[in-house]
Design brief:
Layout lengths: L19 H9 L18 H10 L10 E8 L2 E8 L8 E6 L9 H12 L3 E5 L20 H15 L3 E7 L1 H13 L7 E7 L5 H7 L6 H21 L15 H13 L4 H8 L12 E6 L9 H9 L3 E6 L18 H15 L10
Parallel strand pairs: 3-4, 3-5, 5-6, 6-7, 7-8
Antiparallel strand pairs: 1-2, 2-4
C-alpha cells in the first residue's frame, strides 16, 4: 500500500524510544539478530490489522538530506532516485530500495529500511519506478511489473559511475518482484559488486495475487490501487496528448481489468494474463545466484505464492525463504523489544551485513 502523510503515534509505537546513537549502535550490530522469531505486535495480529497498522504507523526518518539524481533507463525515459552517501561512498555497502505498486521513494517502508541501512553505515539509494514520486513528465511510457531492467540500469550505472564496490537490492511487493526478476535474469552473470538481494512480500506470482486482490475482503486495497492508477493515467494523458485513450478506463472493476485494458495495451502484452506470466519473477527465481532473502507472511491479504514457486525457492541454495504465520503485507510489525518493531526491515539489514562479511545467512526461523 502507498502511505499517506504522517499521523500521530498510536499506542505501542516506539520509533523514537531510543536516542540516535543507541539506534546507530543497534543497527551496526544488527547481524546478530538474524533469525529472531517474528512475534506480531498486539493487538495487530491478523493479516489486515498488520497491513493497515504497518502502513499507517509512522517511522522516524533518520536519513540525511538526499542528492536527487536522474537515471536514463530508455532513450526517452528517466527515473528519479534519492541518494544518501556516506563519507566514503565507494567502499561502503550501497542499498538500493525499490517501492511497491503506487508507492514512491517516500513510502514509509522505504524510509524505514533506508534509515536502518544508513545508521548501519550504508549508502542508501531510494529509487522511484517510472512515473512514481511525481515524475510522470520524465517519459511517455507507463510502469509495470516487467521492468526489472530499470532496476538493473540504476544499479549498473551507480557501479560504473560511482565506483561502488558493494551493493544490495531490496524490493517491497511489486518492487520485490522487480528485484527478484532482475536477479533471476542475471543468474550467474550478476555484477560481482551485488552481494545480496531481498524481497519483502514480493508479488512473484502476479496472476493469483491480482485475482486475490479482487476478493471481497480485499476490495478496499484494490479500490485504493485502482484510484491511484486511474489518476496517474489522467496525468499521463494530459502530458502526452494523443498517446493514451482514456475510454479504456471506463467500467474498470478490478486490477486485472486495468492490466487487461491499459497495462497490456500500452506495454506490449497480449492481455493481462500474458503480462502476468511474462512479468512474474516466479519464472526465474530458480536461477538466482546471489544470496537472497525472501520474506512472506501466510496471512498476507492478497499476495499468493504458488506451490511450484515455493518449491523453486526452497530448492535454490542461494535463497533463504522465510514464511511467517502472521505479518500481513509489507508490515511484519513485531512486539518492540529495544527497537522499533519493524521486523522485516531489521532482518533485511542483518542479512545484508552477514552476506557482506561472508557469514552464514540461511539461519532464519519462521516465527
Amino acid at each position: 500500500m502507498q502511505e499517506h502523510g504522517p499521523i500521530p503515534s498510536l499506542p505501542g509505537e516506539s520509533v523514537s524510544s531510543q536516542p540516535l546513537d543507541a539506534q546507530a549502535a543497534e543497527a551496526t550490530r544488527a547481524r546478530d539478530f538474524l533469525g529472531e522469531p517474528f512475534r506480531p505486535r498486539r493487538p495487530f495480529v491478523g493479516g489486515h490489522a498488520q497491513t493497515i497498522a504497518g502502513n499507517f504507523l509512522p517511522r522516524q526518518n533518520q536519513l540525511p538530506p538526499a542528492e536527487e539524481r536522474l537515471f536514463r533507463v530508455e532513450p526517452e525515459v528517466q527515473v528519479l532516485c534519492h541518494c544518501h552517501w556516506q563519507a566514503d561512498r565507494a567502499s561502503a555497502m550501497t542499498l538500493v530500495v525499490v517501492h511497491g505498486l503506487e508507492g514512491s521513494s517516500d513510502s514509509q517502508y522505504v524510509i524505514g529500511t533506508g534509515s536502518k541501512a544508513w545508521l548501519a553505515g550504508m549508502n542508501v539509494v531510494r529509487m522511484n519506478m517510472r512515473n512514481c514520486g511525481g515524475t510522470e513528465q520524465l517519459g511517455p511510457t507507463l510502469y509495470n511489473s516487467s521492468m526489472s531492467a530499470d532496476v538493473g540500469t540504476v544499479a549498473q550505472t551507480l557501479i560504473a559511475e560511482d565506483g561502488l564496490q558493494k551493493m544490495a537490492l531490496v524490493g517491497y511487493s511489486m518492487g520485490g518482484n522487480l528485484v527478484l526478476k532482475l536477479l533471476g535474469e542475471w543468474g550467474e552473470q550478476a555484477p560481482p559488486q551485488v552481494k545480496a538481494g531481498i524481497g519483502v512480500s514480493p508479488a512473484m506470482d502476479l496472476a493469483p495475487s491480482a485475482d486475490a486482490l479482487h476478493d471481497r475482503a480485499n476490495r478496499l486495497y484494490e479500490w485504493k490501487f485502482l484510484r491511484g492508477l486511474r489518476r496517474r493515467m489522467l496525468r499521463k494523458a494530459a502530458l502526452y496528448p494523443g498517446r493514451y485513450d482514456l475510454r479504456y478506463l471506463r467500467g474498470m472493476r478490478s486490477l486485472r481489468d486495468f492490466d487487461d485494458q491499459i497495462t497490456a495495451r500500452y506495454s506490449g502484452f497480449h492481455d493481462a494474463q500474458d503480462y502476468y506470466t511474462r512479468a512474474a519473477a516466479a519464472r526465474v527465481v530458480d536461477r538466482i545466484a546471489v544470496p537472497t532473502l525472501i520474506m512472506h507472511a501466510n496471512d498476507d491479504p492478497f499476495i499468493r505464492v504458488l506451490p511450484e514457486t515455493r518449491e523453486k525457492l526452497l530448492h535454490n541454495p542461494h535463497i533463504t525463504y522465510v514464511e511467517t504465520l502472521h505479518g500481513g503485507h509489507c508490515a511484519f510489525l513485531a512486539e518492540a523489544n529495544g527497537y522499533d518493531g519493524r521486523w522485516a526491515e531489521r532482518q533485511a539489514i542483518a542479512f545484508i551485513q552477514r552476506a557482506e562479511r561472508g557469514e552464514p545467512v540461511s539461519l532464519l526461523a519462521t516465527g
